[in-house]
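[Meeting: bench + compute handoff]

Bench side (C.D.) handed over the final construct sequence. Compute side (W.E.) agreed to return the predicted structure before the next meeting so the bench team could plan truncations. Sequence as handed over:
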Amino acid sequence: MKVLFVGEGRHDLGASDFPLQFRTAQGVVPKLCQKISNTISSDSIALSWKDIPRFNSSKKGFKHKLKAAALIAKHNGCEGLIAVVDQDNDHARLSELQAGKQESIDSSENNFKIAVGVAVKSIEAWTLGDEVALARALGSNVSAVRQVVAQSEVEKYHENSGKTENRPKGKLNKLCQASCREDCLEFRLEVAEATCVTRLGVSCPQGFEPFKREVESVFAALQPGS
């Protein structure tokens, strides 16, 4: 099933050669979603939120962006849409996405599928949330990861925190530097590839776990042999 992914940018969605154009969906969110459901195909595409046009300039916010994204997805041969946004301490974002999802489904004439989610507080939580996957990608061990990252705290880390030790990108940089790695798209994809979505759901109960359940429900996985 070809899907349009919408997210914040490079780490979420994969690299983009040109602005305002579709990219191949290769970031953390597509990788995790393909682990959740094997119905999502590798030829899926992606757009960043900033590249989604507003068809009516007076209608702002994620609800209207989501509705526009659904139209774009359908017009480009996609059977579904998966949209994720960082919470960034804005607790209204999930309800905005859900409202846009419902209105898009209500106006759809076919079985178009939509799943939405919010990363709490940022998408970095979904890279920091599985210590086993982090250790494997770093060529390190879980004990070393635990010295930097507390799994129970990953949804509290925020880039605008007044405490540098609570900034998720700083956590990733510290882990990478200790293993002579760079926090880049390739590294985050290695972590996503090694991630157990069940473990990640335990570490990220507010953001990833409900998103995982929604993707499981909307994009039901094919059973073996089906």
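W.E. noted at the follow-up: The beta strands are 3-7, 23-24, 45-48, 80-86, 113-119. C.D. will use this when planning the next construct.
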